[in-house]
Amino acid sequence: MEYVKKFETSKLKYEYGLDGIRTFPWEGIVPPFGGGYCIVRPGTSTLNHVNIPDDEDEMFIAVQGDAVVVIDGIDHPVAQGDIVMIPRGLSHFVRNDGPNAFHLYTIWWSHVDVDAYRRQEEQTAAG
User: Fold this and answer.
1) Residue 126 and residue 106 in contact, taking contact as beta carbons nearer than 8 Å
2) Which of 80, 89, 117, 125 is deepest in the core (most CB within 10 A)?
3) In what order do the strands lie in the sheet with 92-96?
4) Contact, 21 vs 36, CB < 8 A?
5) Angle at 81 between CA 60 and CA 90, to 5 degrees
6) What is the pLDDT of residues 54-67, one digit of tens each?
7) pTM of this structure
């Protein structure tokens, strides 16, 4: 089993207006959440959206740089080490007005993730 995934810029995929790598799925691991490492380019914004499914909550952890997370039209300036909670049903996006890339790690969870985790746990327990 692979215990460490090395960060490789060649694996970044452009989606939602950012460069990102989904950290799950991870072979042999089915967590009750999803996650990804994201980079918002200087002078850009991510896609303004509401998470789907409609019970999906999300959290951002600012890793490097400064940006503004806009949640339901309200600006929230963030910097390295800050944590942002985005409750289900709220529109949100990240705006990077600065000259440097903004890096964040995102974690999301919903009934879909939890149900998959429970199924995996039940299969493991059943042997």
Assistant:
1) no
2) 117
3) 44-45, 92-96, 66-71, 74-79
4) yes
5) 25
6) 999 999 999 999 99
7) 0.91
